[in-house]
Design goal:
Number of helices: 1
Strand content: under 5%
Largest sheet: none
Structural class: little secondary structure
Distance between the termini: 39 Å
Order of helices and strands: H
Mean pLDDT: 83
Low-confidence stretches: none
Number of strands: 0
Shape: globular
Helix content: under 10%
Radius of gyration: 16 Å
Length: about 90
């Protein structure tokens, strides 16, 4: 898993993150929507898991039982967004 705030590796993927666990490097709460691999802004409740409860503060710790820690933080742009951005690139 990787800390959602400082992006430091926290150990193997088999480590279970508790509701009150914090990052040893930066001290931020780990069991949050922003640290979950199912977090997907724009989806219902910003989550890929159907029927999850609404969480007001995505960076605050929560008690979601579907939580799975992120293993990478590659920024993924939708194809349409990539194509749109390429329209405004300046050619050297």
């Amino acid at each position: 898993m990787i800390c959602w705030k400082c992006k430091k590796t926290l150990g193997t993927n088999n480590v279970k993150i508790g509701f009150r666990d914090t990052c040893p490097s930066c001290g931020i709460d780990l069991h949050t929507c922003t640290g979950c691999r199912y977090y997907s802004p724009g989806k219902p409740n910003d989550c890929l898991v159907p029927g999850t409860e609404y969480i007001r503060d995505r960076e605050a710790p929560n008690f979601c039982e579907d939580f799975k820690g992120k293993t990478d933080f590659q920024e993924k742009k939708p194809e349409g967004k990539k194509n749109f951005d390429s329209l405004f690139k300046e050619d050297p």
